[in-house]
Amino acid sequence: MRRRKGKIYEISKEVSNDRFFDVQIVQQRLGKSIQSYTKGKTVKLSPERLKDFFGV
């Protein structure tokens, strides 16, 4: 996911000791989101909606 020019963020299920993603519930939600993505159950947002979503 790109948020700003030159900045790329990656979400990975391989993180097990990260202090921000160490909570079991967060890991479960991320796993469920990854499953939804791989099954094609996602929606592509327009550039305008992305700006609104991220508050840019």
What does this 3D model show about the protein?
- The chain contains 2 helices and 2 strands; from the N terminus they run E-E-H-H.
- The longest helix has 15 residues, at 24-38.
- With 56 residues, it is mainly alpha-helical.
- Helix content is 41%, strand content 9%.
- The two termini are 15 Å apart.
- A two-stranded antiparallel sheet has the order 1-2.
Q: What layout of secondary structure does this protein have?
A:
Blueprint: E1 2-4, E2 7-8, H1 24-38, H2 47-54
Short recap of the structure:
The longest helix has 15 residues, at 24-38. 41% of the residues lie in helices and 9% in strands.
What labels describe this entry?
56 residues; mainly alpha; two-stranded antiparallel ribbon; 2 helices; 2 strands
Measured as a percent range, the helix fraction is 40-55%
Mean pLDDT: 78
Count every helix, treating DSSP H or I runs of 4 or more residues as helices.
Answer: 2
State the secondary-structure class. mainly alpha
Q: Outline the biggest β-sheet.
A: 2 strands, antiparallel
Order of helices and strands: EEHH
Rg calc = 13 Å
> Would you identify the regions where 5 or more consecutive residues have pLDDT less than 50?
none
Walk across the major sheet and give the strand order: 1-2
User: Per DSSP, what share of the residues sits in E-state strands of 2 or more residues?
Assistant: 5-15%
The beta-strand count equals 2
Termini separation: 15 Å
Shape: extended
